[in-house]
Amino acid sequence: MAFAEALKPKTGSSHLKTIINAEGKEVQAETRDDEQQRFKYQEIIDLLLGAGYYRAQIKGLSEFDKVVGGMTWCIDICKMDLDVDLLFQENSTIGQKIALTEKIVAVLPKMKCPHDIEPHQIQGLDFIHIHPVIDWLVKRSLENRDERGDYLCLYAVHQFNKDYKFPHEQPDDNFIQGAFQNVKAVQVILMFNMLF
């Protein structure tokens, strides 16, 4: 048997998966496909769906697109000043995937993520190592969403109270002055319309 023949992947092997290489050609690659990996992948998808990232349930997306899309979505929800452009595009080239995973790995320490992960673990879909990071990101994004919701609620109440009062509340002097000016403006417009 020739050396080249010995290195060729065996057809029909359950460990082979068709992927697109850097040149855009379909090739057979050996993948780690065990029960724990599939279990962790499903947990990641469930976490992302529970957090509100519903693109994770789209059947046509690759595992990479679902997981990395979910990671960038969680990071974006955190609204931290990270000074990094995490533009996620589906069906990216290998170069774009590498750049994006490197940016994600660089951002995580800035967010004080307690879990270490390397770009090759994300690109290689090592779900066992990706899972704790996703779990932390989802928790962090939910906390941030709650804080932001509380802030926006207080802001909305404040804005409402600046201009409006409920019938059972006593208006303050600023409210009365503002209302008086508005009534005067309406009266002037009505007088002008009556004359012409």
From TrEMBL:
InterPro entries with a match to the protein in the record: CCDC93, CCDC93_N
Domain CCDC93 N-terminal span(s) in chain numbering: 36-140
UniProt protein name: CCDC93 N-terminal domain-containing protein
